[in-house]
Amino acid sequence: MSVASAGSLQPQPSWNLLEDVRQAFMYPFMVNAFRAGAIVAVLAGLIGWFMVLRRQTFAGHTLAIVGYPGAAGAVLVGISATYGLFAFASIAALVIGLVPNTGGRGYSEESAVTGTVQAFALACGFLFVTLYGGFLSGANALLFGSFLGITSDQVIALLLVALAAAAVLAVIARPLLFASIDPDVARARGVPVRGLSIGFLVLLGVAAAEVSQITGTLLVFALLVVPAATAQTWTTRPVLSVLLTVLIGVSVTWISLLVAYYSPYPIGFFLTTFAFAAYLISVGWRRLHTEERRAPLSVRA
Predict the structure, then answer these.
(1) How far apart are CA 21 and CA 191, in angstroms?
(2) Of 68, 97, 136, 168, whose CB is crowded by the most CB atoms within 10 A?
(3) How far apart are CA 179 and CA 191, in angstroms?
């Protein structure tokens, strides 16, 4: 959604950056967009960092995608689409986590289960839309987000859910990190690896449902994956990497909102493009730095 499509005249930027920022904050819908964007960027950064570390990006993608049939099902039965988003994402997370690993193939077996869940969820979504029979209002918002349609009550709801998820993550963060890096040793030390895996998947489902309300189900990765992948190219220190992930996510979100405010193009495009650009720059810098360290001294001279 662009500013023009939100019902306001397309504003024009000036050479005064501070004045441009002040003008953007004059409208309540932009203030709510900045607040909501910061909330989901922080939560996505915290959960997404562990998701990238545990190589569960496909699970995150699936938990975001199943939000669409969840929202369609909720609309079909006459309740808020938000309930469907959280319900379907949480149920899908439990299904993925509770399927036992009988083949000893770890994440590869989980990927097969995840793909199966995604296919079934999309089939349910198609059925729900067909049964609804009419035009599913807000379908584009469900797929591509609605930054500019967030109300103050929704901001508070997003904040409460994010605080609850962050509090749970803070409690399990240390053993979860141990189980993510070396699950066999962690299991031998008495860490409940399977329980942590299921609990993290539920948190991931909650985060995907929360972020998809802002970015849409198709653009969740812009905040859930890209900032974490970018930060992990800069440092391997967990705390510093998590903080850098959150900083990148919030910065990309706010810059995208500001640029989109003065543009007729949708915010999701800028959000994804800026996040992708940050990732490419980080990977390029990392590769150059690695090649310089490997270069012989004679070549450096």
Answers:
(1) 48
(2) 68
(3) 7
